[in-house]
Amino acid sequence: MLLVVLAALLLQLDYSREGNGSYAYYVSHPDEVGISNLVASVLADWRAYDTMGEAIVLFTAILGVYMALGRRDR
Fold first, then answer.
1. Which of 4, 48, 68, 73 has the fewest CB atoms found within 10 Å of its own CB?
2. Would you give per-residue pLDDT tens digits along the chain (74 residues)?
3. Three-class HEC string of 39-70
């Protein structure tokens, strides 16, 4: 049931390409971004939040496994 609902939600998304996306912004405003390399500007700007989120998820998973296994004193 959950997979059917997920599939229905994914089919309703708009997959059309937007003309004024982030690529167009970075190419047309290099002075505002402050980084001369386009790839580095994308990684340093909005991908940093994604990487931070992945690090938080990984840390939480490690902490959860550590707490689930518990500390064994010998």
1. 73
2. 889 998 898 888 766 655 556 667 777 777 776 667 777 776 766 677 778 888 899 999 999 999 888 866 65
3. HHHHHHHCHHHHHHHHHHHHHHHHHHHHHHHC
